[in-house]
Amino acid sequence: MTPALVVFDLDGTLLDTHIDLVDSLNHTIAALDLAPVTYDDLTHLVGHGAKVMIERACKLQGHSLEPEQLPGLLERFIAHYTDNMPGATVPYPGLIDAMDHLKSKGYRLAVCTNKLEGLARTLLERLQLTHYFDAITGGDTFAVRKPDAGHLLGTVELAGGDPRRTIMVGDSANDILVARNAGIPSIAVPFGYSDVPIESLRPTHIITAFSELTPDLVEDLIGAAEVRNAG
Ligand SMILES: O=C(O)COP(=O)(O)O
Ligand SMILES: [Mg+2]
């Protein structure tokens, strides 16, 4: 049987990136003399990758971007974010223990983020986490990104997994939606950057901390999905 696969979102799920995202975003929009955004604003800005985050931040501060302004701002964001990595970014409590436990039981792990793949890879490398993952895909890896099922299904394929033996763990609407669109059970975490209560996203399951992400839970959720699909 193909080993079970646990696919993680990155920002707000694996890693607490909010300080560095807001810093780099504010450095970026300062080029247009726009006032800084706050950590509270981030939940409304993040989720669709850096381009959308920059566009939304400019709009929030009262500036509608002309399309030709975006490439320069994106470059500015990428340079600042990359130079500062890993900055203040840390894995959420209990993540490493949970991943070690899953791996010790033969589970595969992967990352499916709307962050640019290059930024996600560099960040995970600098935190020495890359070796945990059989695949790392970003918002620019495929022609589509979360919540399109193709992003998650493409990640599963690259990781050598089977969609019928996979779960998706995430903090926001795109993660729960991509899982639903791909017919894969989802687990929501409450400590990330969702702009709505995660219960309202109707994930298959909610954990309050990574100590709850055990092999038994993963098997239960995959088993329940199998029963539903067979019925
Ligand atoms: O960087 C973003 O906008 C979203 O990133 P995530 O998909 O890892 O939450
Ligand atoms: Mg996220």
TrEMBL record:
Its EC number is 3.1.3.18. It holds the Pfam family HAD_2. One of its GO terms (molecular function) is phosphoglycolate phosphatase activity. It catalyses: 2-phosphoglycolate + H2O = glycolate + phosphate. The keyword Magnesium applies. InterPro entries: HAD-like_hydrolase_sf, HAD-like_sf, HAD-SF_hydro_IA, HAD_2, HAD_sf, PGP-like_dom2, PGPase_prok. It is an enzyme of class 3 (hydrolase). Keywords: Carbohydrate metabolism, Hydrolase, Magnesium, Metal-binding. GO terms for biological process: carbohydrate metabolic process; DNA repair; glycolate biosynthetic process. Its cofactor is Mg(2+). The active site is at 9 (nucleophile). GO terms for cellular component: cytosol. Mg(2+) binds at residues 9, 11, 171. Pathway: Organic acid metabolism; glycolate biosynthesis; glycolate from 2-phosphoglycolate: step 1/1. HAMAP family: GPH_hydrolase_bact. Belongs to the HAD-like hydrolase superfamily. CbbY/CbbZ/Gph/YieH family. Specifically catalyzes the dephosphorylation of 2-phosphoglycolate. Is involved in the dissimilation of the intracellular 2-phosphoglycolate formed during the DNA repair of 3'-phosphoglycolate ends, a major class of DNA lesions induced by oxidative stress. This is Phosphoglycolate phosphatase.
